[in-house]
TrEMBL record:
Binding site for dihydroxyacetone phosphate: 178, 206-208, 227-230
InterPro entries membership: Aldolase_TIM, Class_II_FBP_aldolase, FBA_II
Residues spanning the membrane: none
Keyword Zinc in record: yes
Top-level taxonomy: Bacteria, Bacillati, Bacillota, Negativicutes, Selenomonadales
Annotated protein name in UniProt: Class II aldolase
The organism's place on the tree of life at top rank: Bacteria
Binding-site list for Zn(2+) 2: 103, 133
GO BP of this protein: carbohydrate metabolic process
Binding positions (Zn(2+) 1): 82, 177, 205
GO function terms (MF aspect): aldehyde-lyase activity; zinc ion binding
Length: 284
C-alpha cells in the first residue's frame, strides 16, 4: 500500500473508528509506529509538529517519514502537525507530505481564514490535504507558545469550514497538549453540535491522558482523527530508563531499540482503543 492522502484515510472513518495520528521525532519512533500498524492491519498517520523541528529538522526527518510510510504495507499518510509558517508548509509539501495542518488559531477569525485559504491553495498544487484549527486547544506541542483552552463555537467552525474548504478541522472541546494537570472536562455536547452542523472530518488534539471512555464518546460524536504525541515520547523515555536499569552496560543500540519498543507499545494500545484493528482492509 503506497503513501496515501490523509483525506482518503479520513473518508472511511465514520464507520465507528478514528485514524490515529502519531507524532514521531526520529526513525526509531517511525519504525515503532509502523510495526504497530502492520501487526494490527491498521491505517496510520505519521506526523511531526513544527514546534519539534529544533530537535528533528524537517529536511532530515521528512524523507525518513516518507520512506517509512512507503515501506509500510498498511495505508499511511505523512502529515505536518501545527504548521505555523508558509515556509514550513511549503517545505513539507515539497518533501512529499500528503497533508499539512496550518494552525492559525491564535489569529483573529478573519485572519485565520485568510491564511488557511492560502495554505489550501498551495496544498492543492501538490495534491495534498489540509487541516485547520478553530477555537484554541490548550497547552503546547513542542516549542509553540502555550495556549489556554477556548472551546470552538459552532458558528465559527461553520464559517471557517465553508470559507477555507479545509479537508479536516481540529476543534477545541476541552483537551490540551501534554500531560493533564487536572482531569479534562470534555465538551462532548459541543462536539456533537459541530458534527451535526458540518460535513468536514473533525480532529481531536491532546489525546494523551484521555480515558477509553473519553475516546469512545469522541468516536461516537464525529471525531475521525486523533492526535497522540506525549504518550509516545513518555513511553519511549520510560523504556530507555528501564533498559538502563536492567542493563547498566546497555549499548547505544539497546537504547535505539527501546525508543522503537516504547513507541510501538503506545501506538498499538491507542490503535486498539480507536477501533483500528483490521481497518486497513477498507482501503483496498
Ligand atoms: P498530546 O501530546 O497531548 O498527545 O497531543 C498531541 C497532539 O495533539 C499533537 O498535535
Amino acid at each position: 500500500m503506497p503513501l496515501v492522502n490523509m483525506k482518503e484515510l479520513l473518508a472511511k472513518s465514520d464507520a465507528g473508528f478514528a485514524v490515529g495520528a502519531f507524532n514521531v521525532s526520529d526513525m526509531e519512533m517511525a519504525m515503532g509506529a509502523i510495526k504497530a500498524a502492520e501487526e494490527l492491519k491498521a491505517p496510520l498517520i505519521l506526523q511531526i509538529a513544527e514546534g519539534r523541528l529544533r530537535y528533528s529538522p524537517l529536511e532530515l526527518l521528512g524523507p525518513v517519514m516518507i520512506a517509512a510510510a512507503r515501506k509500510c504495507s498498511m495505508p499511511t499518510a505523512v502529515h505536518l502537525d501545527h504548521g505555523r509558517t508558509l515556509e514550513t508548509v511549503r517545505l513539507a509539501l515539497s518533501l512529499g507530505f500528503t497533508s499539512v495542518m496550518f494552525d492559525g488559531s491564535h489569529f483573529p477569525l478573519a485572519e485565520n481564514i485568510e491564511k488557511t485559504r492560502e495554505v489550501v491553495t498551495i496544498a492543492e498544487k501538490f495534491g495534498a490535504s489540509v487541516e485547520g484549527e478553530i477555537g484554541s486547544i490548550g497547552g503546547a506541542e513542542g516549542d509553540m507558545a502555550s495556549a489556554d483552552i477556548k472551546v470552538t463555537s459552532v458558528a465559527e467552525a461553520k464559517r471557517f469550514a465553508e470559507e477555507t474548504k479545509v479537508d479536516a478541522l481540529a476543534v477545541a472541546i476541552g483537551t490540551a497538549h501534554g500531560n493533564y494537570k487536572e482531569t479534562p472536562h470534555l465538551r462532548i455536547d459541543r462536539l456533537k453540535e459541530i458534527h451535526e452542523a458540518l460535513a468536514v472530518p473533525l480532529v481531536l488534539h491532546g489525546g494523551t491522558g484521555l480515558t477509553r471512555e473519553d475516546f469512545r464518546h469522541c468516536l461516537e460524536n464525529g471525531i475521525t482523527k486523533i492526535n497522540i504525541a506525549t504518550a509516545s515520547y513518555d513511553n519511549s523515555a520510560a523504556e530507555i530508563k528501564a533498559v538502563h536499569k536492567a542493563k547498566p552496560d546497555a549499548s547505544y543500540f539497546d537504547f535505539s531499540d527501546a525508543i522503537c519498543v516504547g513507541t510501538y507499545e503506545n501506538v498499538k494500545k491507542h490503535m486498539e482503543i480507536f477501533g483500528l484493528e483490521g481497518k486497513a482492509a477498507l482501503y483496498n
